[in-house]
Amino acid sequence: MIRSVALGCGSYVPARAVANADLTNVVDTSDEWIVQRTGIRQRHIAAEGELTSDLAVAAARAALVHAGVSVEEVDLIVVATSTPDETFPATATTVQAKLGMTKGAAFDVQAVCSGFVYALSVADSMLKNGLGTTALVIGAETFTRLLDWGDRASCVLFGDGAGAIVLRAETATGATDERGVIASTLHSDGRLHDLLYVDGGPSSTGTTGHLRMHGKEVYRHAVTKLTEVVGEVLIAGGLTSADIDWVVPHQANVRIIDSVAGKLALDPAQVIVTVDQHANTSAASIPLALTAAVTDGRIQRGDLLLFEALGGGMTWGANLLRW
Ligand code: UT7
To answer: Which DSSP symbol is given to 274?
Structure first.
């Protein structure tokens, strides 16, 4: 059989960091409220003219260097984003061109905050089926461009950034102690559209629109659905929560992260948290957190990682990856 083995990862955040206190000039909020309700302390905001593809390319280059893989070896790019440079073409094809690639296939996956979990699963399936040998899986967002800066309930929650991993198709026996993607589980329920969406788009209004969220409802769904999907992916992988070395969750709210980890009886020290530094970067949050923990040495080769995320759609899912 083939397994998609992670060779390296990388990330990028825009230079401008905006602290909670800076937002008190924009909306009626406070550092105390934001920290207590979400764990967020700052977010990065892309510069004027800095595009999702620019963030993605910077993260991809860092991941390729970390993996020791040259751009010529890449034959598949999957970009998870809900903030593409343009309505079309896919941001992934712009990334392909900016990396100087002249071959392979590139496309976007749109599953909002679950985007990276979806993209990893799609790339893994393609590599297993011979539709590529070396893949860049990228989560990249300029979510601050979708915000209504008059809505304090949402504008304080999000940031911009990108993260990437390099996957390679390698022959394997299928044992759970072998490196690579072990299992993925994906879900969606379009009936929950109104809980988190953007009120614009080329087909509906012809405008880009703004993010709208019923935070409390999203929170409730996040805790129950993420706990369920983690149980499902563990069964699919033939593993238990005791086998997990690190949880790398989508970074929306530290209270959601703690709550899901608590239901799985995991030690909080096994959970990678970067929401304080990056806020919610949607599809970029998991590879940003992953890169932070690989860079500081917490995550080591051979460790079992759990990725889990929920987002607009609603979409949710989880992956098990032996790093
Ligand atoms: O990435 C995937 C999707 N996103 C999420 O997973 C987010 C899920 N939801 C959440 O994280 C939380 O629901 C929020 C952080 C968005 C909100 O926390 P909450 O504890 O659910 O607060 P709330 O919406 O019930 O608001 C409580 C109070 C309200 O005031 P009243 O009605 O009690 O007087 C809000 O008006 O906090 C007020 N409030 C604020 N106050 C200061 C809302 N936003 C702010 C703000 N600053 N920025």
So the answer is: -
- How many distinct structural domains can be found in the chain? 2
10 shares its domain with 132: yes
* Domain extent at residue 72: 2-174
Asked whether the beta carbons of 243 and 304 are under 8 A apart, the reply is: yes
Centroid of ligand 1 to alpha carbon of 37 (angstroms):
7
- How far, in Å, CA of 78 to CA of 87, rounded? 16
From 157, 174, 191, give the residue that closes a domain: 174
**Domain check: are 164 and 287 in the same one?**
no
165 and 21 in a single domain? The answer is: yes
Task: Say how far apart CA 245 and CA 294 lie, in whole Å.
Answer: 13
The residue contributing the CA closest to ligand 1 atom 39 is 153
Taking only the tens place, the pLDDT of each residue in 4-45 is 999 999 999 999 999 999 999 999 999 999 999 999 999 999
Asked whether residue 31 falls in the same domain as residue 151, the answer is yes
Residues 186, 93 within the same domain:
no
Mean pLDDT of 280-301: 98
**Per-residue model confidence (pLDDT) at position 221:** 98
Cβ–ligand 1 contact at 222 (below 6 Å): yes
Distance of alpha carbon 187 from alpha carbon 224, whole angstroms? 13
Q: Please choose from 35, 158, 216 the residue to mutate so as to test ligand 1's pocket, defined by most ligand atoms within 8 A of CB.
A: 216
Active site residues: 113, 250, 280
- Specify the pTM: 0.98
| Ligand 1 mean position, distance from CA 313 (Å) | 20
How far away, in angstroms, is 216 Cα from ligand 1 center? 7
Q: Are 126 and 260 in the same domain?
A: no
The 3-state secondary structure of 190-250 reads HHHHHHEEECCECCCCCECCCEEECHHHHHHHHHHHHHHHHHHHHHHHCCCHHHCCEEEEC
